[in-house]
Amino acid sequence: MTRGAGAANLLGDAGARALLEEVVRLPSPSGAEAAVSARFVAALAPHADEAFVDEAGNAVAVAGRGALRVTLLGHLDTFPGGPPVRVEDGILHGRGTVDAKGPAVALAAALARAGADVREALELRFVGAVGEEAPGSRGARHAVLAYPRPHLLIVGEPSGWDGLTLGYKGHLRLHLRAERPAAHAARDEATACEALVAAWSRVRAWAAEAAPAAVDGAEARLFDRLQVALTSLASSHDGMTERAEAVLDWRLPPAWSPDALRAALATVDLGPGLSWTTDDGAVAVRAQRDGRLARAFRAAIRAAGGVPAPRVKTGTSDWNVVAPAWSGDTVAYGPGDAALDHTPVERLALDELDRSIAVLGGVLRQLAAAR
Question: Is 216 one of the catalytic residues?
Fold first, then answer.
């Protein structure tokens, strides 16, 4: 009997609720996750064959030595700010309840509760990654290099206990710059700021034409459209040169890779004095609706009394980051309403946490039985 299977389970419903409240009360903006990582490791150690904080700061636990490798990838950092932490009427308020400490606790509890039959068939690896909310996704990138490629990947992100996420759009951040020699404002010529605004208008018009107006004869869904948003503007003047800068946030459908977008943008005439650079970007990801994990989740949700609600999202997650290396069957799942991500009213009903843990347990038992 494995250590975890024989230990008294400290992550039952009451224990999982207590752990979630505790880690939500520990602030963990990107770069300051050490205390939360350590708490996850302490909670999982009695139920895992090994539990540790790795070189990147990720919380890692492994249980079972089966042939089928299943990785449970959550993230422990949060967006800054958030509402005061409190429990009212069975609802936990606070930053991270939804994005994504709630899903991470659900994954951890599912591993802790896995019985001997599951551990005999599966190798379960929990990774509570750091840095998901920051550029670079340091924790997920380390996990890809440090741990075996899983056969199946469950990403801990809010989908609602009866939902499952089958895809995320890709992403590219573009830095647009305008520069010109300083001149008096009374002269009748475009300033750097005006040139930048004109270039933004050209880019937005190009994006509207480049995005498909229809897919299979129907209006294009948001997931299939090329989206761009202007998220930052700044200007400077040192007496010799005027400069203006903008950040454009692109959301990429499966038909557009970051490389394809860069190549297309190179053909757009932005006007004199304009230049741009981009970050590495991330490709869109999408799972098959009838994949092994999707089928297991639908069955487990029905068994728990729910009606499965598959969906795709216009945001991104660590799924996008690990997909090029971990390209196997993947689903994102976790308790919580994603519309509350990064908002001042982020909150999670604690009975939804209970239900999501039950669904994950059902998924793991199905995978073990069908190995």
Answer: no
Enumerate residues 6+ apart whose C-beta is below 8 A from 87.
21, 93, 350
Q: Are residues 25 and 163 in the same domain?
A: yes
Residues 125 and 137 in one domain: yes
The whole-model pTM stands at: 0.91
Q: Are strands 68-75 and 122-129 parallel, antiparallel or unpaired?
A: parallel
Q: Please work out, in degrees rounded to the nearest 5, the angle formed at the alpha carbon of residue 368 by the alpha carbons of 367 and 370.
A: 65
Structural domain harbouring 251: 170-278
Instruction: Considering the candidates 132, 157, 242, 318, report the single residue annotated as catalytic.
Output: 132
Q: What is the pLDDT of residues 239-270, one digit of tens each?
A: 788 999 999 999 999 999 999 999 999 999 99
Annotated catalytic residue, options 21, 33, 54, 77: 77
Domain count, the chain: 2
Average pLDDT over residues 54-77: 98
CATH number of domain containing 332: 3.40.630.10
Alpha-carbon span 75 to 336, nearest angstrom = 15
132 is catalytic: yes
C-alpha dihedral sign at 30, 35, 40, 41 = positive
- Tell whether 182 and 255 lie within a shared domain: yes
Q: Indicate if 17 and 147 belong to the same structural domain.
A: yes
